[in-house]
Amino acid sequence: MADKKPRIVIVGAGFGGVKLAKLFAKDDVEVTLVDRHNFHLFQPLLYQVSTAVLSTDEIAYPIRTFFRKNKNVEFFMAKAQGVDQERKVLLTNHGEIAYDYLILAAGATTNFFGMENVEKNSFGMKTLQEAIHIRNHVLHMFERANKHEDNEEERRRMLSFVVVGGGPTGIEEAGAISELIGIQKKEYHHLDFNEVSVSLIEATDNVLPMMAPNLRDHTVKVLERKGVNVMLNTQVVDYDGNTLKLKDGREIPTRTVIWAAGVKAVPFIANCGGEVDRAGRVVVNEKLQVKGSENVFAIGDCANFHHGTERPLPTVAPVATQQAQVAHDNIMKLIHGQSDLADFHYKDLGAMATIGRGEAVVNKTSMNPQLTGFIAWCAWMFVHLIRLAGAHTNLTVAIKWMWNLLSGTRLGRIITNIQL
Amino acid sequence: MADKKPRIVIVGAGFGGVKLAKLFAKDDVEVTLVDRHNFHLFQPLLYQVSTAVLSTDEIAYPIRTFFRKNKNVEFFMAKAQGVDQERKVLLTNHGEIAYDYLILAAGATTNFFGMENVEKNSFGMKTLQEAIHIRNHVLHMFERANKHEDNEEERRRMLSFVVVGGGPTGIEEAGAISELIGIQKKEYHHLDFNEVSVSLIEATDNVLPMMAPNLRDHTVKVLERKGVNVMLNTQVVDYDGNTLKLKDGREIPTRTVIWAAGVKAVPFIANCGGEVDRAGRVVVNEKLQVKGSENVFAIGDCANFHHGTERPLPTVAPVATQQAQVAHDNIMKLIHGQSDLADFHYKDLGAMATIGRGEAVVNKTSMNPQLTGFIAWCAWMFVHLIRLAGAHTNLTVAIKWMWNLLSGTRLGRIITNIQL
Q1: Would you identify the family this protein belongs to, as annotated (chains A, B) (predicted)?
Q2: Are B202 and B228 in contact (CB under 8 A)?
Q3: Please, are residues A246 and A236 in contact by the beta-carbon 8 Å criterion?
Q4: Nearest to A65 among B76, B187, B392 (CB)
Q5: Catalytic pick among B58, B130, B172, B359
Q6: For position A379, what pLDDT does the model report?
Q7: What is the pairing mode between strands A95-98 and A89-92?
Q8: What pLDDT is stored for residue A171 in this prediction?
Q9: pLDDT value of residue B306
Q10: What 3 state SS string does chain A have?
Q11: I need a surface site. Which of A7, B15, B194, B348 has the fewest CB within 10 A?
Q12: Is the per-residue pLDDT at B119 higher than 50?
């Protein structure tokens, strides 16, 4: 081991994984970053691709470009399948990768809570491909409805859009679809837009659980003003692609259900040799080590970190990046033979969500005030723009947002698959 | 007929079809524009999507947005299948559309000259989907080669890129791939770029047939300086996806063949009741009427217009848009009962082609001088930017081109399909 550098393997190039690789890039170690995609995805703006505001490559950044100058960081495009902790190897569909230290930063996927029909017939909103599918499908529904001149029932079914889940993703998607409809309205000269509807379904009694009660009420009011039919205390039980069935017996005829009602860790986590919770997350100790391992760590949406309360940490970027720092520091301590590993403590930076053009809510923390309306939207825009990867991307995205705000059009409304 | 407006049906929303619909939008007629896509494609920049310079929505513009204010123009998304001239109806996969006047502006598709294996295993370059496939495939080849550490033959096969056809599309594609390789080189720390190659295969003895001889020689020199292996007087006979076979017996091991060696009219043209030529184009008279019909016209790449020489008109936008004007004027004359239809005369505006970043050739005409190098590239850029549809698109594309010129990176290098 004297002349061999420690091998660090990171699974997942999300916010946590990329941060980790950037930190390790400066150390005397060999880093392998594994992801099934060749890009880092800026997930918070996925809803803008799904609603034709932004292009795919504005929220997807080539992973290798981050590490152009870091010869000790290698990207390996593959699907992680499991971990053999005994032999210290990561198993992938392109062979094994030996590690000295492994960090699981593989993220989350949609949780359909075992409802197979819903999973099969509705759209998840976690990957770039899913966002493109939603865009193509929603746009296509208008074209198809436009041709069904003689069948109102079928037309209404095609023009009824349902989003399930009152978290930030569901709120933002419902708001963005309702605005998309306003744009479509100008361009379908023969379609009756009274037949178009957007519904937001939430199982609990309010939206945005992480926000203060006044912001939650405000959000519902803004959504309703935008024409979104907000259905609280409503549970989905089945969906066959044509009719959404609710627990209270009601039915909604619709061809479009977008599911943003829950997440779970990616299935690969179950094959890593640690203890997993109900949502598939691997349990880590206060040092972020997977229970029972010294050299396997987990961070972000795929890790279950106990922090005093029953609720897990939110599935947001700051958790992953803050954990990345601690995991990096602890691994470097182990490499240097030090045993005083640090504990992780989450610093809550607040929460924000847009409810469409010129409207957002920002939750109060020690760092920032509680905001609503246009000023909250500006704050939201600023925070997202500076965090976007890619030098000219910030500029082109800013131009598109401004254009969208002022002109109310979306040039991203192209259907890239053909379903004639 | 007294109180019923004449029904104009246009097949195809390319340069010709959109120009026609815009002209008819100002007349007292009902227009239906039919296309299988919901977007107008700016085909001259397709090679930039296929090589990760631009995003899809920068060269694709929602058709309905053109006609937002024109209530007499209706878009109908469908695949045209044929024409029944007797009954005056266009047949589509979504039913029939009755017309009083019909204009075929359906464009061209790739011509593989009957070589079925080549068609099956190589990439065409006429649609947005094909450009995305090329981008995904080329980028993926680098990722796959990077994992084949122990098999040089397989690596070289993956890293050998062949473009067939020495017209503008082939030239531009080969130049853009060679530059893409320069960018990739900075990011694959363990790949030997001596194993990467780009070849341009042309059956005749020179490239760019529409250009002056000195510009053709210049183009070949620039391509060779960029590392493109230009193979003139070379004919392809077969391709199985692994090995490209040439007529002289040579073989090129390659996983990537991009076919830009010929076009033919879309197959639908054969079902329109007119006389078609060897390339599937429908023969029109000097008034642009389909032979034997008074009220069916054809323009652009799908029309065969005799203009004195054996060679057909070039398959470029100016032919289509100039013909659109004449077809429109002639149809309006027919509607008004006038019989003095105008003849079409093509005004050649010259030709231009880029050979990559900062290099282009512009052919001399009465309108513009003969140019090469950076100044030609600036002229090319200017002409393409002002013709791009979409207000902010011009701005975002200009930003990307400038960024690409100065920084030498391409952020569009994302693989949106997964072929793990």
Answers
A1: Belongs to the NADH dehydrogenase family.
A2: no
A3: yes
A4: B187
A5: B172
A6: 84
A7: antiparallel
A8: 96
A9: 87
A10: CCCCCCEEEEECCCHHHHHHHHHHHCCCCEEEEEECCCEEECHHHHHHHHCCCCCHHHHEEEHHHHCCCCCCEEEEECCEEEEECCCCEEEECCEEEECCEEEECCCEEECCCCCHHHHHHCECCCCHHHHHHHHHHHHHHHHHHHHCCCCHHHHHHHCEEEEECCCHHHHHHHHHHHHHHHHHHCCCCCCCHHHCEEEEECCCCCCCCCCCHHHHHHHHHHHHHCCEEEECCCCEEEECCCEEEECCCCEEECCEEEECCCEEECHHHHHCCCCECCCCCEEECCCCEECCCCCEEECHHHEEECCCCCCCCCCCHHHHHHHHHHHHHHHHHHHCCCCCCCCCCCCCCCCEEECCCCCEEECCCCCCCCEEHHHHHHHHHHHHHHHCCCHHHHHHHHHHHHHHHHHCCCCCCCCCCCCC
A11: B194
A12: yes
High-pLDDT (> 90) share of chain A, %:
76
Output DSSP code: residue B313: P
Q: Given an 8 Å threshold on Cβ–Cβ distance, is A129 in contact with B390?
A: no
Q: Are A321 and A15 in contact (CB under 8 A)?
A: yes
CA B193 to chain centre: 31
Residues A369-417: pLDDT tens digits? 788 888 888 888 888 887 776 666 777 777 777 777 777 677 788 888 7
Determine the Cα–Cα distance for residues A302 and A300; give it in Å rounded to an integer: 6
Determine the residue among B91, B96, B406, B415 to mutate to test chain A binding: the one whose Cβ has the most chain A Cβ atoms within 10 Å. Answer: B415
Q: Which residue of A has its CA nearest to B54?
A: A57
The residue among B305, B381, B410 whose CA lies nearest residue B53 is B410
Give the model's pLDDT for residue B389.
67
DSSP three-state, residue B5:
coil
pLDDT tier, A117 (very low <50, low <70, confident <90, very high otherwise): very high
B129-171 confidence digits (pLDDT tens): 999 999 999 999 999 999 887 899 999 999 999 999 999 999 9
Cross-chain residue pair B418–A36, CB shorter than 8 Å: yes
Residue among B311, B314, B284 nearest B299 (CA): B284
Buried b / exposed e over B209-223, threshold 16 CB at 10 Å, is: ebbeeebbebbbebb
DSSP state for residue B27 in the 8-state scheme = S
Interface mutation vs chain A, best among B38, B73, B150, B183, most A CBs within 10 Å: B38
Does the distance separating the beta carbons of A147 and B76 come in below 8 Å?
A: yes
Banded pLDDT at A366 (limits 50, 70, 90): low
Q: Which two tokens stand for residue A408?
A: 């109310």
Supply the ipTM of this predicted assembly. 0.92
Question: Would you call B241 helix, strand, or coil by DSSP?
Answer: coil
pLDDT band for B116, please (50, 70, 90 cuts): very high
| Min distance A97 CA to chain B CA atoms (Å) | 12
Q: What is the CA radius of gyration of chain A?
A: 22
User: Between chains, do A391 and B413 touch, taking CB under 8 Å as contact?
Assistant: no
Query: DSSP string spanning B153-167?
Result: HHHHHHTEEEEE--S
- Which residues in chain B have Cβ-Cβ distances shorter than 8 Å to A418? 36-37, 129
Annotated catalytic residue B359 = no
- Tell me the domains of chain A and their CATH numbers: 7-36+78-110+263-335 (3.50.50.60), 116-261 (3.50.50.100)
- Chain A residues touching residue B48 (CB < 8 angstroms): none
